[in-house]
Amino acid sequence: MPYLQQLLKSAGMPLPPKPQPSHVILAGIGGVVTVAALALLHGSLELTLLLGSFGASCVLVFGFPESPFSQPRNVISGHVLSSTVGLLFLTLFGPHWWALALAAGLAISVMMATRTVHPPAGSNPVIIFLAQPTWDFLLFPTFTGAIVVVLVAWIFLRSSKRAPYPYYWW
């Protein structure tokens, strides 16, 4: 039992502070507005702008706009780089479990090496291997959708005075 207790022992850090209720509400509304914009554009432009990882991007951008992971550079570049790696591995090696695993690992490394880490984008290779899209996926939904997420966040966070988003652009 002492070994199990030692194994499960945490670093002893306290929970993060509870966010202000207004921040919680604004983050939720920001997510609604962004996903609605993506869905409406998806329906009206006959383009696919919805990507599952964009929901997680909204959590970061609206819930934690001060985080480096939430900045435009990270949101856009992280999504584009991870999708590029996923499409490259799918094209070169086909839909094999090991190619997916390598693509996911390389996407993480590329984002870290380029200082463009955006955790939701780490799921893009998985999405690509499941959907098996063409290279158009890089423009629609990846790049265009990431731009929409950033633009809505910029307008919404500035107008709500929730945060001086972004802290840096590029």
Automatic annotation (TrEMBL):
Q: Does the keyword Ubl conjugation apply?
A: no
Say yes or no: keyword S-adenosyl-L-methionine present.
no
Q: Which residues cross the membrane?
A: 20-40, 47-64, 137-157
In this chain the HPP transmembrane region domain maps to 17-166
- What top-level branch of life does the organism fall under? Bacteria
Cited InterPro entries: HPP, TM_HPP
Give the UniProt keywords, A-Z: Membrane, Transmembrane, Transmembrane helix
Give the protein's recorded name.
HPP family protein
